[in-house]
Every structure is written in structure tokens, then in C-alpha cells.
Design brief:
By secondary structure, this protein is mostly beta strands. Helix content is about 5%, strand content about 50%. It has one domain. A hairpin with a 4-residue loop joins strand 7 and strand 8. The two termini are about 20 Å apart.
Length: about 160
């Protein structure tokens, strides 16, 4: 891997979802709060806190900043992904976001994805997690207007953070 792997959470969300938005005449996207998007339409959420993560056990929560929003269908579609966090447990990992129903309060969480951690390596002073396959959790179905069922594969995500 190259030394230019950025720090943070890199995630393409779902390629077919982004393709759908690209075909929608009134689709809008905003990327704020330190988040960014690359030419391959992968979103980078900057690291926020590793205080609740144990580097020794590999368990706990890594928090990220940033905000990505999508809208369309004359205001009938709205998807907001704010302040993602990944929680690692002995049984796997979960990606959560700030619950859009309680925004702007960020401490209520919505468990969005189940992740399949595949290990990590030391990478230029940071921990680089191998790309993790992801699947939509039942709690996240409504966020995508019930288009995708629970268990639907979403894009893999990668993490690079100093711990």
C-alpha cells in the first residue's frame, strides 16, 4: 500500500445508489464538516476520536467527523450520514451514524451496517484496517426509503487511524 492512504474512514456507500443519484435530474449532494469525496465517489470521513478504542485488544469505538447528505425527488428523498463511528467487538464490527431523527444532537446513534473486519497492519505510524465488507442492518433500512432490505451488501470500507 502507498504512503498516501489518507487517515480516516473511506467508504463508497453503495455504488448502485450513487449511480441512481447521478441519473436523477434534481439530485443534490453536500459534503461538509471535514468530509470529502474523491473522483471515484468514495467518501472520506476524518478521524475524530480513538479514546474509546483499545489498540491492545482491537475492541472499542473509533469515531469520525463529517457530514454527507443526498436529496432528490423534489425533496421526497433525503439521506444524511453524519459523524460515523465503527465499533469493534469480539464478534465483528458495526458502523453507526448520528441518528438523523435527532439531528443536530449527535449522541443518539443509528446502527447502519454490519462489518466483517479482516485484520489490520501498521502503516506509516497508523493502523490500516483491511477493506471490510458491509451489509445493511434492519435499523438502517428506513434511512434508504426501504429500497434495500436488511442484509443488502453495501460497499466495503477502509479505515486508517493513529491509535
Amino acid at each position: 500500500m502507498s504512503a498516501t492512504v489518507p487517515e480516516g474512514l473511506m467508504w463508497g456507500i453503495k455504488k448502485s445508489f450513487l449511480g441512481y443519484l447521478n441519473r436523477m435530474p434534481d439530485a443534490r449532494m453536500s459534503v461538509t464538516g471535514g468530509a470529502s469525496v474523491d473522483v471515484r465517489q468514495r467518501f472520506l470521513f476524518p478521524p475524530d476520536s480513538v479514546d474509546d478504542f483499545s489498540a491492545e485488544s482491537g475492541e472499542g469505538t473509533i469515531r469520525f467527523g463529517g457530514d454527507v447528505r443526498f436529496s432528490g425527488h423534489h425533496g421526497m428523498m433525503f439521506v444524511m450520514l453524519t459523524a460515523p463511528a465503527v465499533t469493534f467487538t469480539p464478534g465483528g464490527a458495526t458502523l453507526s451514524i448520528a441518528d438523523p431523527e435527532s439531528y443536530p444532537v449527535l449522541d443518539r446513534r443509528l446502527d447502519l451496517l454490519d462489518l466483517q473486519p479482516a485484520g489490520w497492519t501498521d502503516h506509516h505510524g497508523a493502523r490500516l484496517f483491511a477493506p471490510m465488507p458491509s451489509a445493511l442492518r434492519a435499523e438502517g433500512v428506513a434511512l434508504f426509503n426501504d429500497v434495500y432490505p436488511a442484509g443488502e451488501p453495501f460497499d466495503t470500507l477502509s479505515i486508517r487511524v493513529a491509535v
